[in-house]
Amino acid sequence: MDKGVVIADAGNRRLVELAGEGRLVRVIPLPRPFRYTDDVFLAPGGSVAYITDPEVDVVGAVGYPAGRLLWLYGRPGHPGAGPGQLNNPDDLVPLPSGLLALADIRNCRILLFSREGQLQKVLGRTGVCRNADGFFNKPNGAFPLGKDRLLVTEIAGHDLAVVDLQGHRLATFSLPVHYPSDANLTPWGTVLVVDWWSPGAVVEVDLKGHLLWRYAPEGKEEHLNHPSVALGLRNGLVVLTDDWRHRVLVVDRKENRVVFQYGRTDTPGSDPGFLRYPDGLDLIR
7: Cβ–Cβ under 8 A, 6 or more apart, which residues? Predict the structure, then answer.
C-alpha cells in the first residue's frame, strides 16, 4: 500500500493508520463535534487531515497525527443553505491549486475553500439540482483531474462530470452504477469509481467514460456491501473500503482477487484489527 494508508473509521469516530505492509501504526481519536468521520484526506506533507461529517453537517481540519482541531466549517447539527451552513457534506479534497474542494450534496453545489477553511468560491447554484452546465445534481465528490479540472460524481443521473474550476461542465459520462461514490484518477491515467450499493462494485473507466474493468464479486464472503472509495496504487493494485462489511481490501485487478484485508468481515469492532463502517481512506505519500 505504498507508504501506507489512513482510514476514516467512521463508526468509531477515529482515524486508523496502516503501514505499507498492512501493520497497524496508530489509532487517532477525533475531537467533537465529529461524530461520524465519513472521509479523510491528508494535506501535502501529511501534517493536516481534512475530515467530513455528514451526520452533524460539518467539515474541518485536524493536526496529524495529534488529532487536534485546527478549524471547523458548518453549524454542528444545523444543516442548511444559509451563511456558514452545509447540508450533507462529502469529501474535503486538497487540489493542486492549493484550494480544497467539497461536495455539498443536498445543496447541489461544490464549494472551494482555502487551506485555512475560508470559503473562496461556490460552483453550481445553491439548491438548484440539475445535470447541466453550471449546475450539479446531488454531487458527492469533487476530485482533481490535473491542475484546473475536477471529476464530479453525481448521485442523481449516475453521472461523472468533468468541470473546470469555474464550474463549467466540459463533459458528462453516464456510469454503469446505481450510486456513484467518488472518482479517483489512478497512477496509470484511468478513473476508479465505486458503486455505493449492495451488492456493490468498483468500476474503472477511461477519460472518455469507456468501461475498462469491473470488480463485483458474487460469493458470500467476497461480495461488496456499500463500498465507498477506491484508490489505485503505484503497483497496479486497488485499495478500497467495503463499508458495511467493516473492512478495507486490496485487490489485484488482473486476477480479481483480494490480496490483503484489514478488518474482520461482517464483524464491527474497535480493537486492533477491527473497523466499524470504514467510510474513507487516503494514501500516505
Answer: 15, 16, 17, 18, 40, 241, 248, 262, 275, 278, 280, 281
